[in-house]
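Why do we care about 3D structure at all? Because function follows from shape, and shape follows, mostly, from sequence. That is the central idea of this module. The next example makes it concrete: a single protein chain, its amino acid sequence, and then its structure expressed as tokens.
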Amino acid sequence: MVGRLGPAQRRPRHAPTPPAAACLILAGGRSQRMGYDKALLPLPAAEAKDQTFLGHLVCLALAHTPEVLVVARDQRTAALYTEHLPPGARLVVDLVPDQGPLMGLYSGLLAVHAPQTIVLAVDLPLLSPRLLAWLLSLPVQDESLCVPLVDQRPQVLLARYPRSLLNSIARLLAEGRRNPRSLLEVAPVRWLPEEELRSLDPELHSFLNVNTPQDWQALEKLLSTRSQSLHR
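And the structure:
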């Protein structure tokens, strides 16, 4: 039961104009299947030596928007992440720890200034810059979530969320809900079809999650094959 969640806070009257859309990276999971913090996994690419999943995603996001936030599980984890972040990114922590990614989404959206936010799981090392730029530039027609569909499955951790959903998220958290998919039941949704996504990322590698050591090995093999083909 979450009892201290409230509506979005009002901004100072003379606050600077925020960007149209921000990026929010959720890095609050415990990475139990991986056995190692996924945010701090090295990106297995020769051109990115010593760069972590988190550092790579933050740099990519900062190339497209000036407002980039990372949500960590707690202050101890946030301290570990600090050295992997370039200047310009902000760190926040879950308001209530161990309440799942919906709490991470809520905690991050509370701290974001932009009215729209691209939410990214930290274990998306092959996110396409073209796809990210497209998501950031989608016109705001209403207060709908913009959710990609891959194999008819909603990709809620690579999607665009309006900040106006904060109150809806607070209600879901108070009901004990933990998964962002629960928002699909209560909020308007604009579905982004797979054919449109493939025009930007033909192999849909942007949606490749790395959850286990086997996934990381597959990623290493994929990047090695890609590197060899580029140097032929």
